[in-house]
Amino acid sequence: ETPANQLVIATSLAQVLSLDPHQATEAKANEIMANLYDRLVSTDGSGKISPQLAEKWEIDDKGITFHLRKAEFASGNPVTSADVVYSITRLLKLDQAAAANLKRVGYNGGNVEKLVTAPDEKTVRIDLSGEVTSELLLYRLAMVIASVVDSKELKSHVVNDDWGNAWLRTNSAGSGPFTLNKWTPNEIVILDASKNYVAGPPKMRRVIVRHVPESQVERLMLERGDIDIASALTATDLATFTGKQGYEIQRVPTGGFYVLSMNASKEPLSNPKVREAIAYGIDYKGMEKAIMGPYGRARTVPVPENFEFAIPSPDWKLDVAKAKALLAEAGYKDGFTVNLKTIAQTPRIDLATAIQASLGQIGVKVNIMQGNGADIIAAHRARDFDLLIPQTGAYMPNVLGAMEQFSSNPDNSLKANNAGNFVWRSGWDIPELTAITAKAALEPDAKKRGALYVQMQEMFVAQKPAVLPLFERYEPIVLTSRVQGYVGHPSQTTRLEGVTKTDK
Amino acid sequence: MIKVENLDVVYGSKDKSNHVVRGVSFAVSRGEALGIVGESGCGKSTVLRSLAGLEGGWTGSISFDGKRVGKVRTRDELKLAQMVFQDPYGSLHPRHRIGTALAEPIRSMGAGDGWARVAEALQQVGLPVHFASRFPHELSGGQRQRVAIARALILSPPILLLDEPTSALDVSIQAEVLNLLADQREERNLTFILVSHDLSVISHMCDRVLVMQNGVFVDELTKADLQAGVTHASYSHELFDASFL
Amino acid sequence: MPDLDETPVLSVRGLNVRFGRNSIPAVSNVSFDVGRERIGIVGESGSGKSTTGRAIMRLLPQRAGVTAERMDFLGSPLLEKTERQMGRLRGKDIALIMQDPRYSLNPVLTIGKQVAEAAKLHLGVGGKAAVAHARDMLARVRINDPDRVLSLYPHQISGGMGQRVMIAMMLLARPKLVIADEPTSALDVSVRKDVLTLLDELVRENNSGLILISHDIRMVAAFCERILVMYSGRVVETLSKLEDAAHPYTRGLIAAMPDPKHPVRRLKVLDRKSIEVEINP
Amino acid sequence: MSNIVQDDAIIQPPAIGTRIWNSTSRILRKLADEPLGMVGFIILAILVVVAIFAPWIAPYDPAAQTLGDALQPPSLAHLAGTDEFGRDIFSRLVYGTRITIQTVLSVSVIVGPIGLVIGVVAGFFGGRTDAILMRATDIVLSFPSLILALAFAAALGAGLGTAIVAISLTAWPPIARLARAEALVVRNADYVAAARLYGASPMRILFLYIAPMCIPSVIVRLTLNMAGIILTAASLGFLGLGAQPPLPEWGAMISSGRKFMLDYWWVAVMPGVAILLTSLAFNIAGDTLRDLLDPRHARS
Amino acid sequence: MKELSLAELGRRLLHLIVSLFILLCVTFVIGRVMPTDPVGAIVGELADPKAYEAMRVRLGLDLPLYQQFFVYVWGLLHGDMGTAILTGNAVTKDLSQAFPATLELATLAVLISTLIGVPLGLAAGLFRDSAIDKFARVFALVGHSIPVFWFGIVGLVIFYAGLNLVGGPGRVDVFYEGLIEPTTGLMLVDSLLEGETDIFWNALSHIILPACILAYMAMAYITRMTRAFTLEQLNQDYVIAARAKGVGPVRTVISHVLPNIAVQLITVLAISYGNLLEGAVVTEIVFSWPGIGQYMTNALMIGDMNAILAATIIVGFIFMLLNFIADIAYALLDPRTREAAR
Ligand SMILES: Nc1ncnc2c1ncn2[C@@H]1O[C@H](COP(=O)(O)OP(=O)(O)OP(=O)(O)O)[C@@H](O)[C@H]1O
Ligand SMILES: Nc1ncnc2c1ncn2[C@@H]1O[C@H](COP(=O)(O)OP(=O)(O)OP(=O)(O)O)[C@@H](O)[C@H]1O
Ligand SMILES: [Mg+2]
Ligand SMILES: [Mg+2]
Fold it and tell me: Which Gene Ontology terms cover its molecular function (chain B) (predicted)?
């Protein structure tokens, strides 16, 4: 049995490569860092912006002024506006993957000093870049990438102008409820309660996140009471806890998708007819039932169904006759052969196998090539694939947050080498869609924006996407009923400060 | 026929050298049978292997038929001297049929496939021709030694080097092999060097005996000496004594 | 303590040994008595000499079927003894000296350990006393420097010395019967005689029986009072002098050996057909 | 014995067929005394038959998915149950024998000759050649073999072919060492000395005299290795780097089946049993062959 | 069997070093030409090409291969094996944590397998074809035939979930994690050093299952080899001589056969130990054991070359070292080669 003052979480830490909030973007890392650092603002479960380090803020048409509340870092240093400015500057100057979210809307290492300023010790002013509305900017500032770090502490760890990155990857310097005690990659993360947390030290003295890659093992540990919370269980293992005494299942939506990327820069997938045929060659319902279970819901528009302005999924379903007809129209009566690359991880490898089988029925022969994360990502970045199954997440709970990465590709040329762009990787050239997306991001009027959102989605479907969403992604977790006050957050920034445990 | 001068063989490298044969010289005339006796490890086999060309590390000079031969032998030089080994079980390839074993020397010399000569060779050593299709393990020790002799003779060498050809055999079979060797020698006017630790075998076969101890020859005995039991060195006396107890 | 009793030490009647289920017997119907004397067993290779010796020691593998009308050692039947009883007998009352000391001494144990083990097993003494016995025994087999030899390993001593160690180890408990299976054929000619004389001397001193197994009929004749000649598992003849040999096999064996004192041009060769006829008329 | 038989029959080397027949029947006769070994060989024979006639034996298409029938327990309709895609596990096992045999044979065909040649050359020529070849062997041997296979699979892209190459890469050194040890003994044999004396060239000695002596133990070793190959291939399959879906490779089947172990035991247990039985059969067969062919292990 | 002199010892040491160097070269080349993308792994999926390129330069991957190699060797000579991408730590530091975990597991496994395998092999050899021989044979063969990952999972299901006899995955229960200061890195030793008997028993309950499973795998080989060696020795004349001297069969095996096969057994044990150290990959994954096998696999997955190189070199070095030690032990234990060493 786990002690009452420690929270033990089992999950897969395989993708966690850094715990520097200005570097890492991976979901699991976010979940941890969200508890080490505070941001200016955060989102609540329903998607509303709520205060965190900034107790209030004023919006004008030039920008936003934040007023900080009194808080201390774990080191005991007070949180000042200088720390906030330093943090955003650091994010953009460090220029890692995490910076992409601000860079996309016009903030970069060059203009950050001009746009982000500290009028006084407790006030931060952020000017709009001109490519974003202040509302959308707030959502971006609620992301973990905008975490505020202890600049005094960090400056003492700088080597070779690295902004303290080497140190911060494996240490913490935040004002969150916990501090990082130990991180051993692919093994364990141990968080300690922070004495200096603004709301007083949390109830849990320690939070232990344990890497357990085998779902069945994780399930055994949960049944034995060796862990309190299990995530990354397979659908079948999850199913055994439904309605089981002493356990609770939370199905947290992520706003992200499991996607079938098709390489539109190559024959035959460059042909929209072929892509449509493929869209008709997949057994969404069967896969949802047999493979995805609580992990996903069939959805072929890259916006979760419950979002405002979401349109219903188009009529894509397994229809062999129609798919064959489309293929014949496209000039591939006898089908063709493609490779399908995927990470060797559940459920994606299972998706691949099922897609292979159903596409086989319409005459498309699929060779599966599974690989480790680095291989597959590298192939994706290099457009070196025919089909590939990536997954996405949403950074804010609206159409743009979910869809932007599916609908924006400013320069599709090979030369642009925009490997950070999801659409570019598929070689899908969508200038109009890109333009509308950019327009929607700048539209201050909610109504008009909503219309643009609908237009974006319809255009996406009409163009027979080369980045075909298959399933809306959920993160189901199981908790023992000893755990109280755990509320899974949709953008995986669950805070653990309010979690308590009962004795047995 | 054979002339050996100052033959030296050293095994091992500088720090741990083992001087096995120390400057021995002797000569054998055509048709003569020379015996070498001595205790185990005194260097008898080494002398023989150097003569045959199986040993690379000797110094001195060796000539056959008046021609000096080197360490690496040409095919013609190899044809001059063939050897019969002590262990009849080890001297035939276990996976070669007798026919193959006998044909191999001819094939190796590049003189045809050799099958034509197999029957004749077998008959010469008194073995039935159908033995050609047998494997060595289907033969007795004596029969194997006959095959080994046939193999050595198939290239018609004038010199035969015999390293304890009968010491692994029973007395009764030893007699057969010794008779066979004597017959062949007479028939082909062969020159023999016979190594053995059994004085009685040596004295039966040889015209002259060299007694070896620690890599040098300490005594030389003629057939008459042997019959009369005459020795010239204390070591050969001891040996002689022990052999006929 | 020399035993002056005159009953035969070993009495064998109708000994048969078979290897495998339905193979021909390796030893068939062999009978002989051994008193306080030296008897020799000769014959060509594979004639069953060693098998006879090991059958007496009951050291043949379990698959070997050993049967005998009688095989009594000092009056008690050997074949009826349990393995444990045999263990007590071996080395204490019956000893076996094998052909090649290079293989029959344990290469990784010192001479001292191996000889002392025999003392421990049969004299009921332990530790130091056993070593002392071993040293005495080595001195008895005329090893000059027994203290040094005790701490040597088998590969560090010569073949002749090794065979003496073997004799010391086996005769330490003064066995009543010694079986020597070709004790000299692996040794150099020059030391053969020494070893044989030593063995002879010790056996006489203990007043034990000796079975000397060899293929060298002349050597056996020089040492033994009686000679059993074996041919394909059977005893074809028992002699006390070579000159008495009547059986064609025995005569053939003698004639096949070259004798420098009486040179011949061709050696006589065994005529196996006529021997077979003689044995199975 | 010394009477000369007048036999004018023309002497010919016996036909290769008779030779093979003779030695096989000899081995078969010996096998009859080894019931356990017999069982091993029978299992292997069955395996080969199943692999050849897989399409006739398997009741279903091994890749055909019926998502509605997923995870059915063993029954008359599905002898070994169905997997998470509703595929018939029995049919997949039957087709899997083909992959297993293909893997095992390919690796053996690559590794056997390479190991044999390297070992024999090193053993026969000795000196510098030996030192260099054995150094190479030692180095490959000291490579963590599964890791090398992993690296290789990562480099060439996962797949059955890669797995075969990767396993071969690390499987030859033990064979080479064995062949070398054997060659070292054989090269000192008198018949090799005799061959040198009658002028046989080194190549002739190497391939006609030494290599044939090393082949039996190499074959025995290969047979014993086959079990290891199956297990390594399965491990690679387990790590997702072996045969790719939907190929019914047993290791991959366990790997995906282990996700259902607790509730649907048959999905992982069936291929596990198949692997166990097969590698056990190879082990037993190898063990028995060794007893039969290798004099050092033969019953005295 | 070669004799062991000082010169020979030196020669072998030289061989060891040369082998290591070649191992280094080969691993380096394999690692660098492998198309995994460590840069991508660090900068993340969404980074733009400039950041990507900058990281490439920072890692020194823009240099020509031979220069990268020199840089690496230079560092190595100064005890610097580079920084692991995965952890951001010096590789040497990571290894100093991962290696003891594997060492602990492998050592326990080799102990268990020796204590059971050797006596079983001796008995099987002595009583050839008896029930015990047949049992040992089948037992060992099965051990050689089970896929270890399968065995591991089944073991967990039975002993952990079902019978609740052993601890689960990991080295200790999660909430004991991080309480013990790694002095030696061996959890069993460290917990005793700190007097934490609770943690000791907990660690033992965790290690016992994976250790037993590995031990069973290794035991198969050890038993078979012991049996084969024993049989070989039992045919030797000295065994018959010992029996003729009156030594009973069991004592013959223990005091005559065992010392003779000890030297060969050491080689077998060294090989087994080496294989366990390097071959525990799959077991470590199944049991979430934070050892070197898992470290390497993870490193491999993201193309973390420094980590792979260092781990391969360490494992290769250990393997070679074990062989080297076995060789020397061989020479020292066997009296036939010993005196030359003095
Ligand atoms: N290849 C070799 N390397 C090193 N030493 C060797 C080699 N061959 C033989 N010797 C040594 O040379 C010495 C003489 O050996 P040789 O074989 O000539 O003796 P031998 O007189 O034929 O003895 P035996 O009667 O036992 O055959 C022995 O001390 C032996 O150990
Ligand atoms: N363990 C065994 N298994 C099967 N057959 C055996 C075994 N030991 C001996 N034989 C056979 O028994 C017969 C007699 O063998 P034995 O060893 O007694 O002969 P020997 O007279 O001592 O011969 P040598 O002079 O060669 O030592 C031979 O045919 C031999 O093949
Ligand atoms: Mg010799
Ligand atoms: Mg004998």
Answer: ATP binding; ATP hydrolysis activity
pTM above 0.90, yes or no: no
pLDDT at D19: 66
d(CA E307, CA A33): 25
Quote the CATH superfamily of domain C10-279: P-loop containing nucleotide triphosphate hydrolases (3.40.50.300)
Give the tens place of pLDDT for each residue, A303-347: 998 888 899 999 999 999 999 999 999 999 888 999 999 887 778
- Minimum CA distance residue for ligand 1 atom 19: B41
User: Residues with Cβ < 8 Å from A167, sequence gap 6 or more?
Assistant: A154, A157, A159
- Residue among A209, A301, A300 nearest A19 (CA): A209
Every domain of chain B and the residues it spans: 2-91+157-244
Residues D31, D35, D40, CA angle at the centre, nearest 5°?
A: 80
A262's tokens: 């098709």
CB B49 less than 6 A from any atom of ligand 1: no
- The number of folded domains in chain D is 1
Q: Structure tokens of E212?
A: 């037993």
Residue type, A191: L
Architecture of domain B2-91+157-244: 3-Layer(aba) Sandwich (3.40)
The answer to whether position D255 is within a domain reads yes
Q: Which residues of chain D are within 8 Å of residue A370 when distances are taken between CB atoms? A: 158, 240-241, 244-245
Q: Do E245 and C121 touch (CB under 8 A)?
A: yes
Which two tokens mark E283? 């077991």
Provide the residue ranges of all domains of chain E, joining segments of one domain with +.
6-35+95-341, 38-80
* Distance, CA of A91 to CA of A165 (rounded, Å): 10
Count helices and strands in chain D by DSSP H and E runs: 12, 0
Minimum Cα–Cα distance from C185: chain B residue: B167
- pLDDT value at E200 more than 80: yes
The amino acid sitting at C24 is: I
The secondary structure element, H or E, covering residue C31 is strand C25-34
Domain boundaries, chain C: 10-279
E1: pLDDT strictly greater than 60: no
Statement: residue D7 has pLDDT above 70: no
pLDDT beyond 50 at D6: no
* Residues contacting residue B144 through CB under 8 Å, at least 6 positions apart: B88, B89, B91, B92, B136
Which residues lie below 8 Å from residue A451, measured CB to CB, with a gap of 6+?
none
pLDDT for residue A90: 93
Sign of the C-alpha dihedral computed for residues D41, D44, D49 and D52 taken in this order: negative
pLDDT of residue E278: 67
Alpha-carbon gap: C153 to the closest alpha carbon of chain E (Å): 7
pLDDT tens readout for residues C117-170: 999 988 888 888 999 999 999 998 888 888 999 999 888 888 888 999 999 999
Between CA B207 and CA B212, with CA B211 as vertex, the angle to 5 degrees is 140
- Residue range C57-88, pLDDT digits in tens: 998 887 788 899 989 998 889 888 888 888 88
User: Is C touching A (3+ C-beta pairs, cut-off 8 A)?
Assistant: no
Q: Are C188 and C199 in contact (CB under 8 A)?
A: no
Give how far E339 is from chain C: nearest CA, Å. 10
User: What residue ranges in E24-109 does DSSP mark as E strands?
Assistant: none
Helix axes C159-171, C111-123, angle to 10 degrees: 10
Domain E6-35+95-341, architecture per CATH: Orthogonal Bundle (1.10)
Interface size between B and C, measured as CB pairs under 8 A: 82
Instruction: Using CB atoms, pick whichever of E144, E153, E282 lies closest to residue D283.
Output: E144
Q: Are D29 and D23 in contact (CB under 8 A)?
A: no
Which residue in the block uniquely carries the two structure tokens 């494997």?
B135
**CATH number assigned to the domain comprising residue D137:** 1.10.3720.10
Torsions phi, psi for A302 (to 5 deg): -80, 35
pLDDT value at residue A119: 92
Q: Select the highest-mean-pLDDT range: A288-292, C13-17, E278-282.
A: C13-17
